[in-house]
Amino acid sequence: xxxxxxxxxxxxxxxxxxxxxxxxxxxxxxxxxxxxxxxxxxxxxxxxxxxxxxxxxxxxxxxxxxxxxxxxxxxxxxxxxxxxxxxxxxxxxxxxxxxxxxxxxxxxxxxxxxxxxxxxxxxxxxxxxxxxxxxxxxxxxxxxxxxxxxxxxxxxxxxxxxxxxxxxxxxxxxxxxxxxxxxxxxxxxxxxxxxxxxxxxxxxxxxxxxxxxxxxxxxxxxxxxxxxxxxxxxxxxxxxxxxxxxxxxxxxxxxxxxxxxxxxxxxxxxxxxxxxxxxxxxxxxxxxxxxxxxxxxxxxxxxxxxxxxxxxxxxxxxxxxxxxxxxxxxxxxxxxxxxxxxxxxxxxxxxxxxxxxxxxxxxxxxxxxxxxxxxxxxxxxxxxxxxxxx
Length: 390
Known about the structure:
Layout: H1 2-13, H2 15-28, H3 34-37, H4 42-51, H5 69-76, H6 87-108, H7 114-124, H8 129-139, H9 156-167, E1 175-179, E2 186-189, E3 194-198, H10 205-227, H11 233-236, H12 241-255, H13 261-278, H14 283-293, H15 298-309, H16 319-332, H17 350-359, H18 380-387
Helix pairs in contact: 1-2, 2-6, 5-6, 6-7, 8-13, 10-12, 12-16, 13-14, 13-15, 14-15
């Protein structure tokens, strides 16, 4: 009852912010990028690519848009931000609108090669020279012996049961759905508040632990923490939130003891695959780099190449490693991660979040990441690498 009175008071005091926030939320709900950028014909094109002995670039098809990009653009810029009297908050919403405007351009150009690639660069950026150096630094370490728990023997149904048991630690409902057209084995749908599992795939014991700590302990934790915030921008995402969110998720893998050198190398390969886009590599060229030069097996090399080249050139994956580096540095300084779990937020907006909390327009978190409570990593090689990333 007290909370309802506080919310009512806030809405009266900051009526113009809540109105714009609600209108923005209504518009943003239509543009979840990952609903459109994953190809519909991955398996058939993978078979064709392998049959051609890795020479015939795949021809991917994508879901049809369910909105009119031009109309949506126009509606974003009809939001009357000048009504927000607080300059700091007005500038925050301005940046949010520019971010989602770029996202619309990304989505409407999926499958058009260069146009999508350039729009992707505007949203997700390009690997820096330091990113590439860090990736090569990781890849120069010799592979570790295959540990127990790495065999892919668990079905998607068994994975569902595992995630359901894991999710009992948290006080939010765990909605699990099976999906076919995913470029990853599992992912969170923020809009559906659900964990999606790729149908007809197999999982290792380590992979289940990794995905649980990545997807449930971070992506779903931030989804449900965002849902209790007064403002919807925490659910929809602050500008450039991917790097922070994926950094938190991989750091959760590390703290839970699930992170392996093999997984860290996967993130390094993703950086090199993104870098190859900047250099104008074709799908076959990127695959050749990962598979033939770095000797990664063809299935994993295909997945990494696919993730980089889907849509026409998608650089989102380069952010996992840089995000991990930034979050790990925060951990070394013993800074709390709680504020980074308030929703789909960004390290660079930490002061803005604190300001909103001061005004009562944001709340502290309800759901915590349990992996962050104790460091269970025992791999000294990982510690050495993380401590020496530039």
